[in-house]
Amino acid sequence: MPEGPEIRRAADQVQKALIDKPILEISFPFEHLQPYEETFSGAMILKVETKGKAMLIRFNNGYTIYSHNQLYGKWYVRNTYNYPKTNRQLRLAIHNEKKSALLYSASDIEVLRDEEVSAHPFISKVGPDLLNEDVSVKDLMERFRDQRFHRRKWTSLLLDQAFIAGIGNYLRSEIMFVGKVHPDRRPMDCSEEELEKIAEACIELMWRSYTNKGITNDLELAKKLKEKGAKRYEYRHWVFNREGQPCRIDGTEIIKFRAGSRRCYYCPTCQK
Which of the residues are catalytic? Predict the structure, then answer.
């Protein structure tokens, strides 16, 4: 499943391709959305926002298209009406005179009036998006102390989209490692210094992954490993997907376990 950084990069591509150019055509395969197709003819896209794994395409006619990629959704940006060869099902197509933005395999798509967006069932409950909103370390520390969250283990909390939007499975393991927190701990078990370090890790790794196409490892180390011939999956992360391999800090064997039915990784010495 794509996580927040992947959706933010897709949003950037869609915005770059379509902003400030009149829409020639929008098409939906879902019958209940097809009456809206004429509504967007000639409209302009103002901006493309994200809320974690959801995307909001804002138009100048008072409407917003909401989409959530879920497990298999994928955006393609191509020259106008140049469709990719794929077995995926086309779910949304937006065309202007030069480019087309095409969403495949996603079924969660809605057309909303701008004033309806904040009340949408997902948008109304989702936590802050670190890539789309101005969220500080202090803001996150206050959230960690919130009664709704402070008694829950980090392993479940970091995947809760109502806590922080856009954190998925690889970011969960990486944040806990960089924040030096054991997976069994909870915010209430942590000191102020530890909470600050975890908050810093959330922001740092979300932005590092976004700006470096999914790399969460130390960038200099990743560069050196790549120059030595390492494949991308070998230099991409600190601990995620590295079961049985040595910790990049102290050489301890990385442990894999299941948390919430999903795989998780940690270093038992760095994360005591």
Answer: 2-3, 53, 262
